Amino acid sequence: MNGRKGNKDRELFRFADEGNSCVITDPRTPRHWYNYLWNEDRYLAQISQIGHGKSYYLDEKSNMCMINRDDARYVYIRDEETNTSWNIGEGPMNTPVEAYSCTHSIGYSLLQSKRERIEASWRIFVPQHGYHEVWTLRLKNTDSRPRNLSLFSAVSFHLEGFSYPRYYEMYRCMTTGFDRELNGIYCGSSHPFAPHERYNGFLAASEPVYAYDGNLADFCGTTGTLTLPDASACGLFTAPDVIVQGRDCTNSEAALFILGGVLQHKLHLMPGEEKEIRVIFGICSSREEARAVVKAYQTHEETESVFRQAEAYNYGKISSLSIRTSDEKINAIMNNWVKKQVDFCIVGKKGVRDNLQIAVGLLNYRQEKAKEEILECLRHQFADGHAVLTWYPYDATRYSDQPFWIIWAVCELIKETGDITILEQEIEWQDGGSASVLEHVKAAAARLLADRGKHGLVKIYFADWNDALNITDDPEAESVMLSQQTALAFRELQRLMEQIGDREYAGFIREQYESLKAAINIHAWDGEWYARALSDKGNVGSRNSAGSRIYVNAQTWGILADVVPEDRLAQVVHAVDGMEHDFGFPLNLPAYPAYDPHVGRMSGMLPGLFENGGVYCHATGFKVLMDCRLGRGSKAVETMKKIMPDNAKNPSARSGAEPYVFTNCYSTNPGYYGKSYQSWTTGTSSWCLMGVYEGIMGIKREYSGLRIQPCFPAEWETAEAVRHFRGADYHVVIRNPNHADGGIAEVFADGILCPDGILPDYGDGCCHEIQVNIHG
């Protein structure tokens, strides 16, 4: 699948390797397009299309060690005869190169280019275990004469990211020096408040180093614009003095400021000759540990063995779920990229709401990891049922929606595993003591019931799912969206209680569901759609509201929770469809023109940005599942593709979003029209994964087994997926010969009809063939 055209109609990218790799063919992308590589030890490397980016480590409490400053990770090449110098990925020197490509793949990034008859490549990967990344640098002489080159590997050292008393900045505790046994620069620190011992950095190489610099001022120069607290200045990496003046590194070392690591290698290449150098960049607890790490990469064979192991791990952990449709874009994004993105979202996140949403997405393919995250979130619930927003950094601001996500996620976990003994597991409370998982769930339900306001809806407090909707002038304001979510939670909790035989509580929670549903329909119905919040100071998201009159989430969740009566359904759907934009669904319309203290932060943003009338992709993900709930398969796919990267009406060349991962929002503000803000760390990825696999393909977990209930688009004649569930694999093939939209499915498991669509719970370690025929 070829990518959109960029400047001067140059192709920006294409997908390769069955969609598992995105090959960027022009380094001048609208913004930096990143890949993230990481391991379960929580070492992460962010790599742009020019190769630079952050390298960092997060401990189990999310204490960060940001290894490099200003994303400095660069490789320079210099012809020693002509003094011509360049970078493999063009940046930061911006010297043009030929045959440029950057391949961002599931387990590595690879930059390649050619200049002055020198072919160069730079591959970066993070091993399965450890606290470092590995660079493989290759230079080949395609000239007819010998060539003399210098190769410079350059990073900065920062080692920041944790809390400490004033005046205890890390730079006061750092030194750099060349360690000959390491064959590289070692950056040591002695911070008295460091939360762990890995606040030491290193940059080392497999081949003898000709010269080095540990003081970036000596490498970059002192006339640049990077000024540090002691007024020392350092030139930026765009044109380092050592590189452009044809000098060698100065063998400098440093303390306090401008710390970095630069390794210079001199290469003599005969015609046709190729040489490889391996560079290891990372953190450690001691010099001895760093030296031991580097020894593991002394040979090409050893390095390639570690690389293959990392590749196998990165694919293996996400391989149990796959899809094949007639839509190549969906295949490229929804096979491995979206799973990688969901997996990445959980790394370092310590928030109850966020982690639970991501974890339920993970249930589709990393069940044990999802279970671990769900149970960890329960540890940050208070005994009265509510929970912190984040436990690191600690934020106990009273967001009202955490109990809903707890109930929903635990119900989904039990459906996925079929293991009701999880409900008996003892989990600590945030405020001391412990209780069973079931008691945590019941406490969440009790909290939501106790938080009902005068209209019978759940109070919003500081905010609900929408962090930026802050009705702080009315402590009694009630959230319609959360009340709808609570109704869904009570419906699911009733089913769980029936499953474990607690019919008394199931009956009680059913009564609460009906009471809440009635209250929503009496007090939140606005004539054509549902208001977003109720307040004596003025309802929000109502026809008569000041500024903005309709919010999409109060409509989508009403349908998902079965709250909308049949005689109002058409009006709600019509209201939602009326909000449609070329690249998704705005969170609210119209956008607030000016700050309104009754609404809070969202109204303080420019109209059309983020939560203030921007296309918030996370919320559009909710809408995809709403379409599936209504049997609108074609509409679900259409909606999904609007927010997928590189939308036909908002290509990555304009939006700036990486073409392989979801972004959090698109702006509708004229000054930033179509642009996206951030990619990778967004719950959009989890909801869109669920939208495709659980909604459109209809592969849904139930207490009794896996249910196949697709909501197929008329445009698809066939599609297939593989799903691992409770110890067995299911190869699901769906056929839609009459091109029905939605349709009714007839399901066969190994040739045997499953009348209710529930597959046998085989649990036998085998792969079973599931045939699904859709009738109009």
List keywords for this structure.
eleven-stranded antiparallel sheet, 776 residues, 27% helix, 26% strand, alpha+beta
Describe it:
The chain is of the alpha+beta class and about 775 residues long. It is built from 17 helices and 41 strands. The strands form eleven sheets. It has an eleven-stranded antiparallel sheet. The protein has a six-stranded mixed sheet with strand order 23-37-38-41-39-40. It has a five-stranded antiparallel sheet with strand order 8-7-13-21-17. Helix 8 (about 400-415) packs antiparallel against helix 9. The protein starts with 12 loop residues before the first strand and ends with a strand.
